[in-house]
């Protein structure tokens, strides 16, 4: 089955700096890569996703890059703000049929943005 | 739109007891997922339903866990008998995958403590 490795497990940055979280996956059939943000005690929420036919995607201060050859993808957050502090999870998945994606999550990165 | 509802939010039981969790997905969402999230880890898929049929239950410990989704709407996840290692947050998620939309919407979770 799919295996997703995520690094680092913790990341501390100063407000305004950039943060980068990296993930690798094992199954070359995976073709959908979402990132979820989970604030303490709350539910995971999708912040950005990318499909395997795209190398990069941006949404305001957040960007995701994908390298299919190397089987790794990264989350980039620029101009970090204290409200970006949370646990971020990457995930990889493939279409298990009928557009139903089975997600395998990484172990998460605790991002702390210091004011 | 209303989000994914789960109950109870918290449950404390002794080992070898049984417990049941309930999930009501977003109206119209055909796909429903149950995840187990152990402290400090990413969510792990236990079972995936498409309407009232099981799409994937390969990681469900079937000797003690069971799940059903009658009428293709609400779902229940049961553990009988519980073990200490079942202590975790149980997340329910739903999705409605028309072409190009694969976001999974998570509920608030049920925090289970087995003593």
Structure report:
The complex is a heterodimer of chains A (115) and B (115). Chain A has 115 residues and is mainly β. Chain A is built from no helices and eleven strands. In chain A, the strands form two sheets. In chain A, strands 2, 4, 5, 9, 10 and 11 form a six-stranded mixed β-sheet that branches. Chain A has a five-stranded antiparallel β-sheet with strand order 1-3-8-7-6, with no helix packed on it. The mean pLDDT of chain A is 93. Chain B is mostly beta strands and 115 residues long. In chain B, the strands form two sheets. In chain B, strands 2, 4, 5, 6, 9, 10 and 11 form a seven-stranded mixed β-sheet that branches. In chain B, strands 1-3-8-7 form a four-stranded antiparallel β-sheet, with no helix packed on it. In chain B, strand 5 and strand 6 form a beta hairpin. At the A-B interface, strand 5 and strand 10 of A face strand 5 of B.
Question: Which terms would index this structure?
Answer:
heterodimer; A: 115 residues; mainly beta; five-stranded antiparallel beta sheet; 0% helix; globular; B: 115 residues; seven-stranded mixed beta sheet
Q: End-to-end span of chain B in angstroms? A: 37 Å
Q: For the largest interface in this structure, which chains are involved and how many residues does each contribute?
A: A-B, 26 and 25 residues
In terms of DSSP E residues, the strand content of chain B is: over 45%
**Run of helices and strands of chain B:** EEEEEEEEEEE
In short:
The complex is a heterodimer of chains A (115) and B (115). With 115 residues, chain A is mainly beta.
Ordered list of secondary-structure elements with their pairings:
The complex is a heterodimer of chains A (115) and B (115).
Chain A: E1 4-7, E2 10-14, E3 19-25, E4 32-38, E5 45-51, E6 56-59, E7 62-67, E8 72-77, E9 86-95, E10 101-105, E11 109-114
Chain B: E1 5-7, E2 10-13, E3 19-24, E4 31-37, E5 44-50, E6 53-56, E7 65-68, E8 75-79, E9 88-95, E10 105-106, E11 110-114
Parallel strand pairs in B: 2-11
Antiparallel strand pairs in B: 1-3, 3-8, 4-5, 4-9, 5-6, 7-8, 9-10, 9-11
């Amino acid at each position: 089955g799919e295996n997703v490795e995520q690094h680092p497990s913790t990341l501390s940055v100063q407000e305004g700096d950039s943060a980068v979280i990296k993930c690798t996956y094992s199954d070359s059939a995976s073709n959908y890569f979402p990132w979820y943000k989970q604030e303490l005690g709350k539910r995971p929420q999708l912040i950005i996703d990318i499909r395997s036919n795209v190398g990069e995607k941006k949404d305001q201060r957040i960007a995701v890059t994908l390298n299919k050859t190397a089987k790794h993808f990264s989350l980039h957050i620029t101009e970090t703000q204290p409200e970006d502090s949370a646990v971020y999870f990457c995930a990889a998945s493939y279409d298990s049929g009928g557009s139903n994606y089975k997600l395998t999550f990484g172990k998460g990165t605790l991002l702390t943005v210091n004011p | 739109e209303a989000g994914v509802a789960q109950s109870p939010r918290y449950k404390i039981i002794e080992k070898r007891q049984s417990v049941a969790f309930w999930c009501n997905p977003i109206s119209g969402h055909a796909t429903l997922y149950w995840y187990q999230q152990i402290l400090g880890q990413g969510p792990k898929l236990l079972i995936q339903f498409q309407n009232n049929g099981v799409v994937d239950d390969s990681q469900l410990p079937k000797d003690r866990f069971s799940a059903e989704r009658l009428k293709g709407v609400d779902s229940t996840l049961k553990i009988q008998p519980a073990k200490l290692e079942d202590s975790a947050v149980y997340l329910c998620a739903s999705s409605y995958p028309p072409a190009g939309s694969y976001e999974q919407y998570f509920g608030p979770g049920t925090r289970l403590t087995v003593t």
